[in-house]
Amino acid sequence: QASMLELRTLEGAFHSKVRGMCATAELPHDEALITVPADNVLQVATGEDCPLGGKISAESWRALPWWAQLATLLVYELQRGKESHLASWIESLPQDFSSIPMNWSDSELAALEYPPLVENVEKQREELAKAFADAAGGCEFALNEEDFVWAVQAVRSRAFSGPYEGRKASDRSAQLAFIAALLVGGVASGAVTLENALNGAFVAALSVPLTDFFVGASARLKRHAVCPVVDYLNHD
Questions:
Q1: How many Å apart are CA 127 and CA 110, to the nearest integer?
Q2: Considering the chain, what is the average pLDDT of its residues?
Q3: What is the pLDDT of residue 173?
Q4: I need a surface site. Which of 11, 67, 117, 173 has the fewest CB within 10 A?
Q5: Which of 157, 178, 145 is closest to 231 using CA atoms?
Q6: Pairing of the two strands 42-45 and 160-163
Q7: How far apart (Å, rounded) are the C-alpha atoms in residues 3 and 99?
Q8: What's the N-to-C CA distance of the chain in angstroms?
Q9: 61-96: b or e for each residue (b if 16 or more CB lie within 10 Å)?
Q10: What is the pLDDT of residues 29-38, one digit of tens each?
Q11: CB neighbours of 20 closer than 8 A, spacing ≥ 6?
C-alpha cells in the first residue's frame, strides 16, 4: 500500500526515460509511505532453511551465497507465472542489464585499459557459474542459466541487508503463549505453586527477547531482502 505515492515514468539525465516514485500529496512527518506484506518480500537469512522447502536440497541451499539464494527464489516465482503473487512486480522488472560490466564483451572491457576491473569481472563470472551449478544441481524445478543470471543481476541491484533480528513476531508470540499455557496448567494441576510458576514464567518470557537481542547483535548473521514496490524508490 502506498496511498500517497505513485509510480510514474520520468525523464532522466540525457533525456532518458526512467520510472520512479512521485508524491501525490504533502507527506506528513514520520508517516509510513509504503507498507508491504511480509509474504511479498523475497528474503533469506544466515543459516535459515530454504523458504521453498524440499524444492531445493538443503545441501545445495547452504552452499549458495545470499544473492544466489534470492535469485533462486525469484526464478521460482518467475516460473510460476500468473500464479505467483509477485507476477505483476516481476513483469515490471528490467529485462536488460547491459550496463553491468559483467555483461560487457571482452573487447569492451579491454578498451577500458583497467586490469583491476577486468579481474573483478572474471571473478564475478566464475562465482556466478559456480552458484548456478550448485543451485541447478539441487533444484527439483527447472533452473536454466539465462533466467538465473537475469535473477542474480536483478536481486544484486535491488537487495538490501540488515542484522538478523532472530525469530519472527509470530514465533515469539507462539513461545509466549506456550509459556502461559504451562503456567496455567502447572498451577491448575497442583504440580507447582503459583509463586514458583510465576517466577519460572517470568524467566522464560524474559529469555525470548534477550535471545533475539544477542543473536541479532552478531555481525555474522545477516538478513538480505528484495522488497517489491519499495525498490522503486531508488531503482528504475
A1: 21
A2: 83
A3: 74
A4: 11
A5: 157
A6: unpaired
A7: 33
A8: 19
A9: bebbebbbbbbbbbbbbbeeeeeeebeebbeebeee
A10: 877 777 888 8
A11: 7, 8, 10, 232, 233, 236
The grid coordinates of residue 218 equal 552478531
> What is the mean pLDDT of the segment spanning 217-226?
72
41-77 pLDDT, tens digit per residue, is 899 988 888 989 889 999 999 999 999 999 999 999 9
What is the CB neighbour count within 10 angstroms for residue 164? 20
What value does the CA radius of gyration of the chain take, rounded to a whole number of Å? 23
Return the half-sphere exposure (C-beta side, CA atoms, 13 A cut-off) of residue 202: 6
- Pull the grid cell for residue 235: 531503482
CA distance 221 to 212: 12
Nine-digit cell string for 220:
555474522
Q: Where are the alpha helices (DSSP H) in the chain?
A: 58-63, 66-80, 87-92, 106-112, 115-138, 145-156, 169-189, 194-216
Whose grid coordinates read 579491454?
A: 110
| Cα atoms found within 13 Å of the Cα of residue 217, Cβ hemisphere only | 6
Question: Is residue 69 within 8 Å of residue 90, measured between CB atoms?
Answer: no
Cell 537469512 sits on residue: 45
Cell of 145: 542459466
* Burial grade of 226 (CB within 10 A; 0-12, 13-18, 19 or more): buried
Pair 72, 147: CB distance under 8 Å: no
**Each residue's pLDDT tens digit, 85-140:** 999 999 988 888 888 899 999 999 999 999 999 999 999 999 999 999 999 999 98
